[in-house]
Amino acid sequence: MTKRRSRRKPRQTTSSLDSLTPILAVVGRSGSGKTTLVEQLLHELTQKRYSVGTIKDAKGGFQLDLEGKDSYRHYRAGAQAVALVSEEQAEAALLTRLPAGLPIEELCRRFFPEVDLVIVEGFKDLPIPKIEVTRGEDLCCDGDPNLVAVVGPLSAPRDDVPCFTLRDIPALVRLIEDTMLRRETRLKT
């Protein structure tokens, strides 16, 4: 059996994590607008034909399936992984057991091998490029050398950190393209 080689060119990583796919964190205090920013970035990036995956830091845990449903029963009975597949919606989800503390770069390697960018929401302590969202309060990442931009109603905390508003998404995406994405990674059609 012959293995097929990927046609994708290897990328240089822009973070200190060992990952082929660039990883960008959107961070900020609770209620600051992180999810809104992620949604807007996804819309703009996908309009530009980039493939983007996301990872959300679910500190309080989560429940993917409802108690009593078959997939819930499979998982609770001890299945290592349960795939939920819907041919009608052309979607699939995978619920799998992972070792505690699995590094973000390993999650990206396992679950997002073919995307141009992974946006993580949260994970402010990781040594990866970050965009902080604020509603005017003190920054969580002020002084962090990985802070690449601030989105909110305040001036930039440092000369090397640009500040954007939620109306400046195209300019913020240009910054992401220029610093993290190669233009040749865009899907061809």
Task: Explain the overall architecture.
The chain has 189 residues and is an alpha/beta fold. It has a domain at 23-62 and 99-185: P-loop containing nucleotide triphosphate hydrolases (Rossmann fold, 3-Layer(aba) Sandwich), CATH 3.40.50. The protein has 4 helices and 8 strands, in the order βαβαββαββββα. Strands 2-5-1-6-7-8 form a 6-stranded parallel sheet, with helices on one face. A hairpin with a 4-residue loop joins β3 and β4. The radius of gyration is 18 Å and the shape is elongated. Residues 1-19 and 184-189 have low confidence and may be disordered.
> Helices and strands: which structural class?
alpha/beta
Under CATH, the homologous superfamily of the domain at 23-62 and 99-185 reads P-loop containing nucleotide triphosphate hydrolases
Estimated radius of gyration: 18 Å
Helical segment tally? 4
Return the CATH architecture of the domain at 23-62 and 99-185.
Answer: 3-Layer(aba) Sandwich
Mean pLDDT: 79
The end-to-end span amounts to 30 Å
Low-confidence stretches: 1-19, 184-189
Strand content: 15-25%
List the secondary-structure elements in sequence, H or E.
Answer: EHEHEEHEEEEH
- Please name the CATH topology of the domain at 23-62 and 99-185: Rossmann fold
Strand order of the largest sheet: 2-5-1-6-7-8
Q: Could you give a short account of the major beta sheet?
A: 6 strands, parallel
How many strands in all?
Answer: 8
